[in-house]
Amino acid sequence: MNEWKQLDRGSTLGGRILKVDHAGEQGAVNIYRAQIFVAQWTAPSLVPELREFKSHEERHRALFWAELQRRGVRRCRSYWLCGIGGWVLGLLTGLLGRHAIAATTVAVERVVLVHLKTQLRELTGKDETAVHVISQIVEEEQLHHDQSASHVRAGHVWTKLLSPVVAASTETVIWLGMRL
Fold first, then answer.
1. pLDDT for the residue numbered 157
2. Average pLDDT score over residue span 67-86
């Protein structure tokens, strides 16, 4: 997005994006952490899948952190906000059960995938290292979306209620992260 160039306060565009992506991965890890905790009772069949997704998000977070450290860039100020927000979202949706868990992942990943693809377009030719790091996670984020979508029934109440709220919340956190 062109607005990212205007919001780049003292760091490179790639560095700024990587900071926000790193914070987002902290949120994702905590969503899955809380969902795993609660899903043991509300959706036990999803626990192995959630553990797999969490391990992917932990690896993504580590990739972004390694690149931020290499660049000498501190993590985003929204890092802890994303972590706490992710944990609360994971806990609440975990309590609501299988469909809410899956609908949450689909909504988050839909937004994330759009942003990742936009980031790749914006950074290509400008910061190939950032492009390389971001490119490493796209396939797994798509897998999370697609696998979770297979658990969602069209028209289910949680899909109708949660999808727009979770998507708007995810967009807001990304928007806020780019401004902090």
1. 84
2. 95
